[in-house]
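Friendly challenge for the regulars: who can give me the structure tokens for this chain first? No prize, just bragging rights.
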Amino acid sequence: MRALANTAYFWRCAVQGVRRAPLVHLLAVFTIGMVLLAAGLARSGISLLDSLTESIGGEVELTVYLREGATESSAAEVARLLGSKTGGSAMVVTPEAALARLRAELRGVGDALRDLPSNPLPYSVQLRVAPALRNPAALRALAAEARAMPLVQDADYGEEAVARLTAISRAVRYAGLVAFTVIGLATVFIVAATLQLAIYARRDEIEIQKLVGATNRFVKAPFLVEGGIQGVLGAALALAALWAFSQAVGPKLQLLFAFLLRPGAQLSLVSPSVACELLLGGGVLGLSGSFVAVGRFLKT
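First reply, four minutes later:
Bragging rights claimed.
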């Protein structure tokens, strides 16, 4: 019963504190909301990058070129071995099919290939790489393993393009994490500074509580609840802004980035997972700011 009474008292004091200094709390809510809005937009950008990585990664193929003199049956055996080892799908490309494809890719210039006395292209095997192997290290190891086969002359998977795409994805994630950490810390101190104004306005009440034996935890609790309320309201503000932005710009972005999205996928800025993440982030920012503010006050 005592714990329930204390909880009710903390919430009552927190609501009263918000009513006493609405402008101060509104500033904190607005600050948290803007930070979380930027975080939500950045998360959507990272989701687009993930879609791009997955769409390009889905086209990653290991092309294995067989030695001169290889036959279609030996090429089929290589395809079977590679497919069974990697869990991907392998297809044999005959020299005639490879030459026809090269002629089509070269378009008008490709007609010159018709006058070749013989077909210089070897049998090859195209392996659609399984998702678990679509990273530079795994592809490099797979290419080395394929080159070690007796009938294989060479293996290629577009190493430079895969490495660049992976590096870009990693750099964007790290940059987003660093930026959010820096901005989040700045927000905590901004919220702490605004809450200190509200705390100083109630310093007489706090001093009376201390005189009658209230512990630091008891004094801190209402302000921590205030910070949590600020964080949740800031997250709600960010979600409302994301929803409005999604309604206004979402359809245009869907058309603009349709080539990056997986087939049938919809560009969504507001989802249950995003809402939970923003609410959690808002609560953490609000609680952290209030904890810093109260800690500073009690030390003075």
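The first helix runs from residue 2 to 20. The chain has a mean pLDDT of 77. Your move, everyone else.
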